[in-house]
Automatic annotation (TrEMBL):
Source organism per UniProt: Rotaria socialis
UniProt keyword terms in alphabetical order: Membrane, Transmembrane, Transmembrane helix
Keyword Repeat: no
Predominant cellular place of this UniProt entry's protein: membrane
Localization (cell): Membrane
GO cellular component assignments: ciliary transition zone; membrane
InterPro entries assigned to the protein according to its UniProt record, in alphabetical order: Uncharacterised_TM-17
Record's protein name: Uncharacterized protein
Membrane topology note: Multi-pass membrane protein
UniProt keyword Chaperone present: no
Membrane-spanning intervals of the chain: 12-37, 43-62, 83-105, 111-133
A Gene Ontology BP annotation from the UniProt entry: non-motile cilium assembly
Amino acid sequence: MILTVSDQSSTALHILLHCNIAYSILWFILEILIFIFKFYHLAYAPNAFGVEISSVFMLLFNECIRHYFGIKGNLMLQTVLQIIFIIYGIFCAVGFVFFLILQSYVTRLEVLLSGIGLALILIGIILSIITLIRDSRPMPVLTREQKIVRLHQAQKRFQESIQNE
């Protein structure tokens, strides 16, 4: 770490992705429970219930893929994986908009849950774009002399910390 000059992965994006994984699981469980409630209490058009319940599973599958590419792209600092993460984020955002306003019966709880999911996706996309811009800057390469100077500075700081204890 001391002898190289490199950008680190985005900590904010990484924390957001892990929180988003937990939220996606919570969203999926609550959405299935809401659909069970709606199935027994509301009259659906033929095939509408099947299409909407399968949309829940498709959105969860896309969320899992999005999280995979987001975490890998962020940790490995690979531009291609982060771009795939952004593209999947757009698809998942469209899915959450469907559950927010376009499904047959929208409950207030679904509006709240889908709104939170949509906000998490949009924040993740913004953080990923910031990370892409930050990582696209050319990084300076340290010369041998600069590495030696940094090594001596680190050794000096280490010796001072030992003496202070």
